[in-house]
Amino acid sequence: MSTHFADRLAAAVAVSDSRVCIGLDPRPDLLPPVCLQNKNIVVAAVEFCKGIIDATAEFAACFKPQSAYFEALAPTGLTALWDVIAYARSSGVPIILDCKRNDIGSTASAYASACFGRHHQGAVTATDAVTVNPYLGSDGVEPFLSVADDIGAGVFVLVKTSNPSSGELQDLQTEDGYLYECVARLVDDWGSIEKRVGECGYSSVGAVVGATYPEQLAQLRELMPRAVLLVPGYGAQGGTARDVAGAFDGDGFGAVVNSSRGILYAYRENGLEYKSAAAEAAQHMRDAINSVLR
Amino acid sequence: MSTHFADRLAAAVAVSDSRVCIGLDPRPDLLPPVCLQNKNIVVAAVEFCKGIIDATAEFAACFKPQSAYFEALAPTGLTALWDVIAYARSSGVPIILDCKRNDIGSTASAYASACFGRHHQGAVTATDAVTVNPYLGSDGVEPFLSVADDIGAGVFVLVKTSNPSSGELQDLQTEDGYLYECVARLVDDWGSIEKRVGECGYSSVGAVVGATYPEQLAQLRELMPRAVLLVPGYGAQGGTARDVAGAFDGDGFGAVVNSSRGILYAYRENGLEYKSAAAEAAQHMRDAINSVLR
């Protein structure tokens, strides 16, 4: 298997014929009763995530555990997160840890060690990629890129987020275009270094661009030709298959589209057992996105 | 004791006659041999931080544990972090958890629960304040403010960070001034709501502004008259007492200045036992800052 993240992700897309990123957000208030019964919430959340992984791996381009939901469970939440990551790894599907970390210098290096699974002690596995926030500039991002380079992993930088107020700062007009365009140019620069571009033509430096802003999504696709786009905001947040079509290239790669609630908690809508419901929802989303590819 | 964060911090500054924030960054490569010997690195880090807390509490306005260094130790690092936070709390000194979290909607709410110590299960104590990154705009910050309002805690928003490349994005010129000024106006808006302003006149919504940019520090002091400034970059990063003078009001409040390495690892410079070295360094920094107050 290629040691380059973008090539691993491209291979996973080809094998599954899926551009679906399944977000693993274990929310105590939404977990199915079968997982909760008489169990510690941390145990229940891990059981739930493993069930989702079993049920949906064949329809998934990647899994995206959300650190926040694990951290919120208990002070031991990160141990549960790494348990889930190790399990997901055994499925062979790439793993993007969504943690939006950011800091400077040696502190960013510490975060990079932590989120790529290179802890000082007790690391058991690795993530394939992580998400980071660019507000601190290059020297806040470089420590993540450096670890990623060492282990053939990827980094997704927040560029244009999916939330209603993302424009408050990201859409500010600067001397060089909108702020999100300035960030996009940095992402393109970081990702254009030869060693960071895989055989598939995409870089290990990707970008987070929301499905809820389809015009900017198409524009950012052009501005960052080498960046794999991680596209949140599909489904529960309002993004549709048509909205994300502009994220893909003519070969049906170049992006993965995330859904969390719409897959994880599909059982609450359709009355099926949670794993069957999630599998059905993931398959449906896969097919919906494939139907809009050029 | 006041239930308002800014009032608690003002009281701590008055009692200690100190504006020093002591950063708790347990770095495996810098820990003193006495803490390391034959011990698990997580145990060693906790022992070290508790020793620092014992030695420096009398010279500290607040403690600022840095989540990254705990997370990097092991998957159990956050359990160690909360052990240290509980210990720091028993000293009576306010605690700012430096985690620079950011996300949207329910995910930001999950982070807010986690970093203020309101875990779904197993929370044992609380932090007095946390740091957040503003790149996602108001709806990425509001969930943190909401929890802070509920428990009388504070939120420090990154405005102008201390690192060399902080200007790449933060100093971009927009239609409404530099980006950091736009963020500062948001901070001022968020913090001006009546319930967020304490008896001391300062708000529970503060701002992170680096000591390494003294001109911007003085300017931002004016732009955010109600915001307590958390000022990193002193000492090891190059900021001096003179550089931070502009952060304070005429009563010697309005800011706390962080030092981590320069206090924690002073033993490596002066050969003293680590606790004595840290106490001496903290006292020295307290006196240096007090000497430049207006």
Structural notes for this entry:
- Two copies of one chain form a homodimer.
- The first copy, chain A, is α/β, with parallel strands linked by helices and 294 residues long.
- Helices cover 45% and strands 15% of the residues of chain A.
- Chain A has a single domain (5-24, 61-66, 95-290), classed as TIM Barrel.
- Chain A has helices at residues 5-16, 33-36, 41-56, 67-71, 77-90, 105-115, 138-151, 167-170, 179-191, 214-223, 241-244, 261-264, 267-270, 274-290; strands at residues 20-24, 62-65, 96-101, 129-132, 154-160, 173-174, 177-178, 205-209, 229-231, 255-259.
- In chain A, α11 (241-244) links the parallel β9 (229-231) and β10 (255-259).
- In chain A, α3 (41-56) packs parallel to α5 (77-90) and α6 packs parallel to α7.
- Chain A is globular.
- The two termini of chain A are 28 Å apart.
- The model of chain A has no long low-confidence stretch (mean pLDDT 96).
